[in-house]
């Protein structure tokens, strides 16, 4: 969910995405980009240069998804305290120890 909004700013190279999405490992980023490309949400463009220069960008269908993801992210940020409190209450009420 973090890669698509990042790419909404424009095409990016792998290193740019790593810096933009703090805490993601190279392995997870690579696997996720491959899956997004497989599902038609990300395009990969190899400039065929040395050193390697590959850019990732959103496809048209992904562009339409970004606004939905952004809205979901905002909703989660706004409602996180309430959701967190509900989880804590539930855990306290259902403690099997």
Can you put this structure into words, describing what you see?
Strand 2 and strand 3 form a beta hairpin. The longest helix is centred in the C-terminal third of the chain and has 34 residues, at 60-93. The relative contact order is 0.15. The model has no long low-confidence stretch (mean pLDDT 91). This protein has 4 helices and 3 strands; from the N terminus they run H-E-H-H-E-E-H. Strands 1-3-2 form a 3-stranded antiparallel beta sheet. The protein has helices spanning 3-7, 14-20, 26-38, 60-93, and strands spanning 12-13, 42-46, 54-58. With 97 residues, it is of the alpha+beta class.
Oligomeric state of the chains? single chain
Q: Average pLDDT value?
A: 91
Percentage beta strand: 5-15%
How many DSSP H or I helices? Answer: 4
Can you write the helix and strand succession as a string?
Answer: HEHHEEH
Helix content, binned percent: 55-70%
Strand order of the largest sheet: 1-3-2
Secondary-structure-based class equals: alpha+beta
Q: What gap, in angstroms, lies between the N and C termini?
A: 36 Å
CA radius of gyration: 18 Å
Low-pLDDT parts are: none
**Total DSSP E strands:** 3
Give the biggest beta sheet.
3 strands, antiparallel
Shape: elongated
């Amino acid at each position: 969910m973090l890669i698509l909004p990042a790419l909404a700013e424009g095409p990016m190279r792998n290193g740019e995405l790593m810096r933009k999405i703090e805490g993601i490992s190279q392995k997870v980023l690579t696997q996720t980009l491959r899956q997004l490309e497989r599902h038609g949400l990300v395009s990969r463009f190899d400039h065929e240069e040395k050193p390697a220069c590959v850019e990732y960008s959103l496809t048209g269908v992904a562009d339409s998804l970004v606004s939905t993801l952004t809205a979901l992210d905002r909703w989660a940020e706004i409602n996180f305290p309430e959701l967190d409190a509900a989880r804590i209450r539930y855990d306290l009420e259902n403690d099997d120890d």
